[in-house]
Amino acid sequence: MIDDKSYEDARKHIERRQSFLDGIDMEQYSPFVKGIKYHKGNISGGKFLMGVDSLPHFGRQSTIHVGNMAFEEFSPVEFYNSMVHHEGVHARQFYFNPSTIMDVGKFAIARVFKSQRKLVINRIKMEVEAYKNQMEHPSFSQCSFKRRKRIEQVLEYANNCHDEISRQIS
Ligand SMILES: [Zn+2]
Q: Which pTM value belongs to this model?
């Protein structure tokens, strides 16, 4: 878990955020995570509060990136639930299956380019796995109603994209 007090401290003091992130226990996902990096601005143009990047090599650990907004929007338990039980899952996925590393923005491209569809389907499956994993963890029930609703909506969107692209392939 994440200590509420150190999270609140990191929220208030920008200069302490990196050391707070360095102290996070990624639990069973630790072997797949190289480090967690703080960004003063937004990441991915503000689309995501956190994200994983890795290199497309089997057995390579990922870096998790955290934007400014994460500290503004997440309660301590929401931060923990997303960081460990969503981003941690991505780090593990990329470790074992690096061919699936791609920008989620390609979801849209799949509607245009057939060649991308299989790749996008695999990527969506990984997203669905990560969302389900964070929802099944006990900490999810402690997230705000708004946060839980948001995650449920994104999962539904991912499932719809999956079904739509599957139909296009078949
Ligand atoms: Zn994700």
A: 0.89
